[in-house]
Amino acid sequence: MSPLPAARSAWGERLAQHLVSQGYAEEATMAAMIGESASTGIGLPLLLSSRGIVPGQVVASALGQLSGIPAIDLLAEQPAADALRLVPEPVAREYRAIGFRHAGDQMVLAF
User: Fold this and answer.
1) What is the distance in angstroms between the CA of the first residue and the CA of the last residue of the chain?
2) pLDDT higher at 2 or 7
3) Which of 30, 38, 50, 109 could form a disulfide with 97 if both were Cys (CB 3.0 to 4.6 A apart)?
């Protein structure tokens, strides 16, 4: 197994444990979704939100809490136009990131 799938699997396990401990899903449901994620290659967060098992905002918030990186709801909070222009399109596409806001020499990216 390459490092990327292994890392995805580890994050999926952490996410599942967190969501179960917070009462958002049952352990059996999460086990089934982890298995499906592993067999299909579809990330657990996408499976959970697209199936309506856990709302997408809850999944994003949980990932933010687990990673220590704040989650931003791009539908509720719009990126600053000047920050969007500061990240060249090829870079944005490669890293799946956009400039969200900046102040001075600091830039906040959204992935």
Assistant:
1) 25
2) 7
3) 109
